Amino acid sequence: MSLFSRKSRSADPYLPELSIKQADRLRDLSVAALGRLGDSAEAAGDHLAASHNHQYGLFAVGRKAAQLPEREWPGMVEQHFGAVIGDAAGRSDIAPEEILGRVYPKFISPGVLAHSQQSDPSLYAYARDVAMVPLLVALDSPESVTYVASTKVEAAGGAGIVWDAALRNLIADGPGHAEEMRFDDGSFLVFETESVYQASWLAYPDKFVELLGYKPGPLGALLSIPATNILCLHLVTEATTINDISAMLRVTGLMQAQHPSALSPLLYWWDGSSVQPISGHDGEDVHLFVPDELASIL
User: Fold this and answer.
1) How many CB atoms lie within 10 A of CB 132?
2) pLDDT in tens, 242-294
3) Per-residue pLDDT tens over the stretch 126-138
4) How wide is the angle at C-alpha 236 spanned by C-alphas 248 and 298, nearest 5°?
5) Environment class of residue 30 by beta-carbon count within 10 Å: exposed (0-12), middle (13-18) or buried (19+)?
6) Which of 191, 208, 240, 250 is most open to solvent, judged by the fewest CB atoms within 10 Å of its CB?
7) Whole-model pTM?
8) Helix, strand, or coil here: 89?
Protein backbone atom coordinates (compact mmCIF):
# COMPACT_ATOMS: atom_id res chain seq x y z
CA MET A 1 0.00 0.00 0.00
CA SER A 2 1.40 3.36 -0.95
CA LEU A 3 1.40 6.46 1.23
CA PHE A 4 0.30 9.70 -0.35
CA SER A 5 2.06 13.06 -0.39
CA ARG A 6 0.18 16.21 0.52
CA LYS A 7 -1.99 17.70 -2.20
CA SER A 8 -0.28 20.28 -4.36
CA ARG A 9 -3.56 21.66 -5.70
CA SER A 10 -6.63 23.13 -4.05
CA ALA A 11 -9.27 20.40 -3.89
CA ASP A 12 -12.85 21.15 -4.85
CA PRO A 13 -15.03 21.10 -1.69
CA TYR A 14 -17.73 19.01 -3.37
CA LEU A 15 -15.64 16.73 -5.61
CA PRO A 16 -12.37 16.45 -3.63
CA GLU A 17 -10.80 14.05 -6.12
CA LEU A 18 -10.51 17.05 -8.48
CA SER A 19 -9.08 20.53 -8.22
CA ILE A 20 -11.51 23.45 -8.18
CA LYS A 21 -10.65 24.29 -11.79
CA GLN A 22 -11.07 20.67 -12.90
CA ALA A 23 -14.37 20.27 -11.06
CA ASP A 24 -15.77 23.44 -12.62
CA ARG A 25 -14.82 22.14 -16.07
CA LEU A 26 -16.45 18.78 -15.33
CA ARG A 27 -19.66 20.52 -14.23
CA ASP A 28 -19.70 22.59 -17.44
CA LEU A 29 -19.19 19.46 -19.54
CA SER A 30 -21.95 17.69 -17.62
CA VAL A 31 -24.46 20.51 -18.03
CA ALA A 32 -23.68 20.65 -21.75
CA ALA A 33 -24.00 16.87 -22.13
CA LEU A 34 -27.40 16.87 -20.43
CA GLY A 35 -28.52 19.72 -22.65
CA ARG A 36 -27.67 17.72 -25.76
CA LEU A 37 -29.64 14.83 -24.27
CA GLY A 38 -32.69 17.07 -23.92
CA ASP A 39 -32.56 17.94 -20.21
CA SER A 40 -31.61 21.44 -19.05
CA ALA A 41 -29.67 21.63 -15.78
CA GLU A 42 -27.64 23.90 -13.53
CA ALA A 43 -24.53 22.91 -11.56
CA ALA A 44 -24.99 22.84 -7.78
CA GLY A 45 -21.84 21.62 -6.09
CA ASP A 46 -22.04 17.84 -5.92
CA HIS A 47 -24.98 17.46 -8.31
CA LEU A 48 -26.82 18.94 -11.25
CA ALA A 49 -30.26 20.41 -10.62
CA ALA A 50 -32.31 19.57 -13.70
CA SER A 51 -35.87 20.13 -14.90
CA HIS A 52 -38.84 18.53 -13.14
CA ASN A 53 -36.99 18.70 -9.79
CA HIS A 54 -34.59 15.95 -10.89
CA GLN A 55 -31.01 15.74 -9.62
CA TYR A 56 -27.99 14.04 -11.15
CA GLY A 57 -25.22 13.20 -8.72
CA LEU A 58 -21.65 13.97 -9.80
CA PHE A 59 -19.83 11.49 -7.54
CA ALA A 60 -19.51 8.72 -10.12
CA VAL A 61 -18.55 10.94 -13.05
CA GLY A 62 -16.07 12.73 -10.78
CA ARG A 63 -14.36 9.45 -9.89
CA LYS A 64 -14.16 8.53 -13.58
CA ALA A 65 -12.69 11.92 -14.47
CA ALA A 66 -9.99 11.60 -11.79
CA GLN A 67 -8.69 8.48 -13.52
CA LEU A 68 -8.54 9.94 -17.05
CA PRO A 69 -6.58 12.62 -18.92
CA GLU A 70 -8.70 15.74 -19.32
CA ARG A 71 -8.71 15.41 -23.11
CA GLU A 72 -10.83 12.25 -22.66
CA TRP A 73 -13.40 13.89 -20.42
CA PRO A 74 -15.87 15.12 -23.07
CA GLY A 75 -16.46 11.65 -24.51
CA MET A 76 -16.59 10.04 -21.07
CA VAL A 77 -19.09 12.60 -19.77
CA GLU A 78 -21.30 12.18 -22.84
CA GLN A 79 -21.28 8.41 -22.43
CA HIS A 80 -21.87 8.60 -18.68
CA PHE A 81 -24.96 10.79 -18.84
CA GLY A 82 -26.28 8.90 -21.85
CA ALA A 83 -26.25 5.78 -19.69
CA VAL A 84 -27.79 7.63 -16.74
CA ILE A 85 -30.62 9.02 -18.90
CA GLY A 86 -31.19 5.59 -20.43
CA ASP A 87 -31.35 3.95 -17.02
CA ALA A 88 -33.80 6.55 -15.77
CA ALA A 89 -36.06 6.54 -18.81
CA GLY A 90 -39.58 5.71 -17.77
CA ARG A 91 -38.44 5.13 -14.18
CA SER A 92 -39.45 8.35 -12.45
CA ASP A 93 -41.58 6.31 -10.05
CA ILE A 94 -39.21 3.64 -8.79
CA ALA A 95 -41.02 1.00 -6.77
CA PRO A 96 -40.32 1.13 -3.01
CA GLU A 97 -38.93 -2.41 -3.03
CA GLU A 98 -36.44 -1.42 -5.74
CA ILE A 99 -35.36 1.63 -3.76
CA LEU A 100 -34.85 -0.52 -0.67
CA GLY A 101 -32.69 -2.91 -2.66
CA ARG A 102 -30.38 -0.12 -3.88
CA VAL A 103 -29.83 2.14 -0.85
CA TYR A 104 -26.66 2.39 1.23
CA PRO A 105 -25.52 4.60 4.11
CA LYS A 106 -23.04 7.25 2.96
CA PHE A 107 -21.26 10.09 4.70
CA ILE A 108 -21.43 13.66 3.44
CA SER A 109 -19.30 16.56 4.63
CA PRO A 110 -21.13 19.00 6.95
CA GLY A 111 -20.37 21.90 4.59
CA VAL A 112 -21.78 20.15 1.55
CA LEU A 113 -24.92 19.15 3.47
CA ALA A 114 -25.47 22.72 4.69
CA HIS A 115 -25.09 24.05 1.14
CA SER A 116 -27.54 21.47 -0.22
CA GLN A 117 -30.14 22.40 2.40
CA GLN A 118 -29.97 26.17 1.95
CA SER A 119 -33.02 26.28 -0.27
CA ASP A 120 -34.87 23.46 1.53
CA PRO A 121 -33.86 22.76 5.16
CA SER A 122 -36.04 19.63 5.16
CA LEU A 123 -34.30 18.12 2.13
CA TYR A 124 -32.46 15.54 4.26
CA ALA A 125 -34.44 15.75 7.48
CA TYR A 126 -33.75 12.08 8.22
CA ALA A 127 -29.93 12.59 8.34
CA ARG A 128 -28.04 11.01 11.24
CA ASP A 129 -25.01 12.41 13.03
CA VAL A 130 -22.09 10.01 13.51
CA ALA A 131 -19.16 11.49 15.45
CA MET A 132 -20.12 14.95 14.12
CA VAL A 133 -20.21 13.76 10.49
CA PRO A 134 -23.67 13.61 8.82
CA LEU A 135 -24.76 10.24 7.42
CA LEU A 136 -27.33 10.06 4.61
CA VAL A 137 -28.83 7.33 2.48
CA ALA A 138 -27.62 7.07 -1.12
CA LEU A 139 -29.33 5.39 -4.05
CA ASP A 140 -26.80 3.27 -5.94
CA SER A 141 -26.73 2.41 -9.63
CA PRO A 142 -23.91 1.41 -12.00
CA GLU A 143 -23.64 4.96 -13.34
CA SER A 144 -24.52 7.19 -10.40
CA VAL A 145 -24.66 7.59 -6.65
CA THR A 146 -27.32 10.05 -5.50
CA TYR A 147 -28.36 11.04 -2.00
CA VAL A 148 -32.02 10.27 -1.31
CA ALA A 149 -34.28 13.19 -0.39
CA SER A 150 -36.64 13.01 2.58
CA THR A 151 -39.71 12.84 0.31
CA LYS A 152 -38.41 9.67 -1.36
CA VAL A 153 -37.46 8.19 2.01
CA GLU A 154 -41.05 8.64 3.17
CA ALA A 155 -42.39 7.19 -0.08
CA ALA A 156 -40.27 4.09 0.47
CA GLY A 157 -41.78 3.47 3.90
CA GLY A 158 -40.15 5.98 6.20
CA ALA A 159 -36.71 6.60 7.68
CA GLY A 160 -36.64 3.51 9.90
CA ILE A 161 -37.37 1.11 7.05
CA VAL A 162 -34.93 2.82 4.67
CA TRP A 163 -32.09 2.91 7.23
CA ASP A 164 -32.62 -0.80 7.96
CA ALA A 165 -32.48 -1.57 4.24
CA ALA A 166 -29.31 0.49 3.81
CA LEU A 167 -27.59 -1.46 6.58
CA ARG A 168 -28.74 -4.80 5.13
CA ASN A 169 -27.26 -3.88 1.76
CA LEU A 170 -24.00 -2.78 3.38
CA ILE A 171 -23.78 -6.07 5.31
CA ALA A 172 -24.52 -8.03 2.14
CA ASP A 173 -21.50 -6.40 0.46
CA GLY A 174 -19.29 -7.55 3.33
CA PRO A 175 -16.59 -5.79 5.40
CA GLY A 176 -13.72 -6.35 2.97
CA HIS A 177 -10.31 -7.89 3.65
CA ALA A 178 -7.64 -6.52 5.96
CA GLU A 179 -4.11 -5.47 5.13
CA GLU A 180 -1.84 -4.89 8.12
CA MET A 181 -0.09 -1.53 8.18
CA ARG A 182 3.07 -1.07 10.27
CA PHE A 183 4.44 2.43 10.60
CA ASP A 184 6.76 4.07 13.16
CA ASP A 185 6.48 1.13 15.59
CA GLY A 186 2.70 1.20 15.44
CA SER A 187 0.25 -1.06 13.65
CA PHE A 188 -3.37 -1.21 12.52
CA LEU A 189 -5.52 -2.82 9.83
CA VAL A 190 -6.57 -1.18 6.55
CA PHE A 191 -9.77 -2.29 4.82
CA GLU A 192 -9.68 -0.85 1.31
CA THR A 193 -12.35 -1.91 -1.20
CA GLU A 194 -13.91 -0.76 -4.48
CA SER A 195 -17.03 0.43 -2.64
CA VAL A 196 -17.68 4.12 -1.96
CA TYR A 197 -19.65 2.95 1.07
CA GLN A 198 -16.73 1.27 2.87
CA ALA A 199 -16.24 4.23 5.23
CA SER A 200 -19.91 3.96 6.23
CA TRP A 201 -18.93 1.11 8.54
CA LEU A 202 -17.82 3.82 10.99
CA ALA A 203 -21.52 4.17 11.81
CA TYR A 204 -21.82 0.43 12.57
CA PRO A 205 -18.57 -0.66 14.28
CA ASP A 206 -20.29 -3.42 16.25
CA LYS A 207 -21.60 -5.03 13.04
CA PHE A 208 -18.24 -4.52 11.34
CA VAL A 209 -16.16 -6.37 13.95
CA GLU A 210 -18.86 -9.04 14.29
CA LEU A 211 -18.72 -9.83 10.58
CA LEU A 212 -14.94 -10.02 10.79
CA GLY A 213 -15.12 -12.48 13.66
CA TYR A 214 -13.22 -10.14 16.00
CA LYS A 215 -13.97 -9.85 19.72
CA PRO A 216 -13.18 -6.34 20.90
CA GLY A 217 -12.19 -5.77 24.50
CA PRO A 218 -13.77 -3.31 26.95
CA LEU A 219 -11.96 -0.36 25.34
CA GLY A 220 -13.32 -1.03 21.87
CA ALA A 221 -11.38 0.15 18.85
CA LEU A 222 -9.71 3.05 17.06
CA LEU A 223 -11.03 3.81 13.58
CA SER A 224 -10.42 6.24 10.76
CA ILE A 225 -12.01 6.92 7.37
CA PRO A 226 -9.45 8.70 5.19
CA ALA A 227 -11.47 8.03 2.03
CA THR A 228 -14.92 6.80 1.07
CA ASN A 229 -13.54 3.37 0.17
CA ILE A 230 -11.15 2.95 3.13
CA LEU A 231 -11.68 2.17 6.81
CA CYS A 232 -8.76 1.70 9.23
CA LEU A 233 -9.13 -0.30 12.44
CA HIS A 234 -7.08 -0.98 15.56
CA LEU A 235 -8.64 -3.09 18.32
CA VAL A 236 -7.58 -1.58 21.64
CA THR A 237 -5.87 -4.02 24.03
CA GLU A 238 -3.40 -3.77 26.89
CA ALA A 239 -0.67 -3.96 24.24
CA THR A 240 -1.89 -0.76 22.55
CA THR A 241 0.60 2.13 22.82
CA ILE A 242 0.82 5.76 21.80
CA ASN A 243 2.83 4.51 18.81
CA ASP A 244 -0.27 2.79 17.43
CA ILE A 245 -2.27 5.99 17.77
CA SER A 246 0.49 8.10 16.22
CA ALA A 247 0.92 5.69 13.31
CA MET A 248 -2.78 5.61 12.60
CA LEU A 249 -3.04 9.40 12.72
CA ARG A 250 -0.03 9.88 10.48
CA VAL A 251 -1.03 7.37 7.81
CA THR A 252 -4.68 8.46 7.85
CA GLY A 253 -3.59 12.05 7.22
CA LEU A 254 -1.31 11.01 4.37
CA MET A 255 -4.03 8.92 2.74
CA GLN A 256 -6.68 11.59 3.11
CA ALA A 257 -4.41 14.32 1.75
CA GLN A 258 -4.04 12.81 -1.71
CA HIS A 259 -6.77 10.21 -2.16
CA PRO A 260 -9.16 10.84 -5.07
CA SER A 261 -12.17 10.26 -2.79
CA ALA A 262 -10.85 11.88 0.39
CA LEU A 263 -13.07 11.95 3.48
CA SER A 264 -11.67 12.62 6.97
CA PRO A 265 -8.16 12.88 8.48
CA LEU A 266 -9.47 12.39 12.02
CA LEU A 267 -9.04 9.50 14.41
CA TYR A 268 -12.14 8.08 16.09
CA TRP A 269 -12.65 5.93 19.17
CA TRP A 270 -15.45 3.42 19.53
CA ASP A 271 -15.90 2.67 23.22
CA GLY A 272 -18.26 -0.24 22.62
CA SER A 273 -21.39 1.89 22.48
CA SER A 274 -20.69 5.16 20.64
CA VAL A 275 -18.11 6.68 18.28
CA GLN A 276 -16.35 9.96 19.00
CA PRO A 277 -13.49 11.89 17.36
CA ILE A 278 -10.32 12.01 19.47
CA SER A 279 -8.22 14.20 17.18
CA GLY A 280 -8.58 17.58 15.54
CA HIS A 281 -6.74 19.83 13.11
CA ASP A 282 -5.71 23.45 13.38
CA GLY A 283 -4.14 24.17 10.02
CA GLU A 284 -1.18 21.80 9.75
CA ASP A 285 -1.20 21.08 13.51
CA VAL A 286 -2.84 17.89 14.80
CA HIS A 287 -4.31 17.79 18.29
CA LEU A 288 -5.12 14.58 20.16
CA PHE A 289 -7.86 14.38 22.79
CA VAL A 290 -7.53 11.01 24.53
CA PRO A 291 -10.33 10.16 27.02
CA ASP A 292 -9.20 9.10 30.48
CA GLU A 293 -10.31 5.49 29.97
CA LEU A 294 -8.12 5.18 26.91
CA ALA A 295 -5.21 7.15 28.33
CA SER A 296 -5.03 4.79 31.32
CA ILE A 297 -3.47 2.00 29.23
CA LEU A 298 -1.03 4.11 27.21
Assistant:
1) 12
2) 999 999 999 999 998 877 677 899 999 999 999 999 999 776 778 899 888 88
3) 999 999 899 999 9
4) 80
5) buried
6) 250
7) 0.76
8) coil
